[in-house]
Design brief:
By secondary structure, the chain is mainly alpha-helical. The chain is built from three helices and two strands; from the N terminus they run ααββα. The protein has a two-stranded antiparallel sheet with strand order 1-2. A hairpin with a 6-residue loop joins strand 1 and strand 2. The longest helix has 56 residues. It is rod-shaped, with a radius of gyration of 58 Å. It starts with 34 loop residues before the first helix and ends with a helix.
Length: 132
């Protein structure tokens, strides 16, 4: 016979079917909706567009005001030049003499001087002082 020893059958414990233990399982996490994020992005985009539109409108209105102010400044400058020429023309010696003659003024005889040291009058007016 053979020299291999025979093994004795091993007694296996009886297999008992056990129920697996129950565990609490969390509900699956809901995926967040993209609607709030998209709404926020659209709000920011629309706000930026409106801001740019309002800024552009304000700049255009300011440009029109500046144009009107420049036109008014040019008109006032032209009027000032006209008035300056009129003053220079009326301030000329010939114009002053003509205006004085129209008012009934007479030409003076000459220049008279007043000496402060003794209170004497020198010149053509000296004759007028003594006669009352």
């Amino acid at each position: 016979m053979s020299a291999v020893p025979q093994r004795a059958p091993v007694a296996r414990p009886a297999v008992t079917t056990r129920r697996p233990r129950l565990q609490i399982v969390r509900a699956p996490a809901h995926q967040r909706s993209l609607v709030p994020f998209v709404a926020l992005c659209l709000t920011i985009l629309v706000g930026a567009m409106l801001g740019a539109l309002l800024l552009n409108t304000a700049m255009a209105a300011t440009a029109y005001q500046m144009r009107e102010q420049r036109i008014e400044l040019a008109q006032l400058s032209e009027h000032q030049q006209f008035l300056t020429q009129q003053v220079e023309r009326r301030g000329a010696p010939a114009a002053l003499a003509a205006a004085a003659t129209e008012l009934g003024m007479e030409r003076g005889e000459g220049t008279s001087y007043l000496r402060l040291e003794d209170g004497a009058i020198a010149g053509p007016a000296a004759e007028l002082v003594g006669s009352d």
